[in-house]
Design goal:
about 210 residues, about 20% strand, 9 strands
Length: about 210
């Protein structure tokens, strides 16, 4: 059966500023960022999830194992090399997803693990070619694209250079959500600690 909404987690970075791949950074509840993003997507109504993950490290001709397994229900799309631009990772993720049948795709960077499932559901239900989650008029993540736009990126017809530029050209709509997690970029340990305090405080004031 076709999945109406797919999910793509962008988690292919090496995480130099975090001290390791952010996909496998751990939240206080014990879940990895990757698992938390997968949980948010599934609880928001997404059944098909692909995650771009770092290229295996080659040492002496053998690939080292990634530090933690990919969570159940998440399909891995390993990047062919380290240091790829974000748009290249996006293209690889979309290429992997195009093998399946779906209508819209929610794209969630792995350094936004505090996003709520209700945000995912709101994006999935939005209309138009593309949409951007916003909190108090501030753009954040995730975003949603229809299949035609995602396919144009995956097949190389649209080359960016950034997703924001593509979304601007597609007249993406703002999707207002009551979720400060959409602007909580946990890209360093310090930002994670701040977000764990800021997000509940901001949510309580909403």
């Amino acid at each position: 059966m076709a999945a109406r909404v797919a999910g793509l987690i962008l988690a292919g970075g090496r995480g130099e500023r975090f001290g390791g791949p952010k996909a496998f950074a751990v939240l206080p509840d014990g879940r990895t960022f990757l698992a938390a993003c997968g949980d948010a997507l599934r609880a928001g109504g997404v059944a098909l999830i692909v995650a771009t993950l770092p290229a295996p490290v080659i040492d002496g001709g053998a690939s080292d194992e990634l530090p933690l397994p990919v969570p159940p229900g998440v399909q891995a799309a390993h990047l062919p090399a380290a240091g790829l631009a974000m748009f290249d990772s996006l293209q690889i993720g979309f290429k992997a997803l195009l093998a399946f049948d779906w209508e819209r795709v929610v794209v969630l960077p792995v350094d936004h693990p505090l996003v709520r499932p209700t945000t995912v559901a709101a994006l999935a239900a939005s209309e138009g070619v593309a949409g951007i989650a916003t909190w108090r008029s501030k753009h954040g993540h995730p975003v949603v694209l229809d299949r035609d736009l995602a396919e144009a990126i995956g097949n190389g017809r649209l080359t960016g250079p950034t997703l924001r530029e593509v979304l601007s050209g597609a007249a993406a709509v703002d999707v207002a959500v009551d979720d400060p997690g959409v602007v909580a970029n946990c890209n360093t340990p310090e930002r994670l600690r701040e977000a764990l305090v800021e997000v509940p405080r901001r949510a309580a004031k909403s």
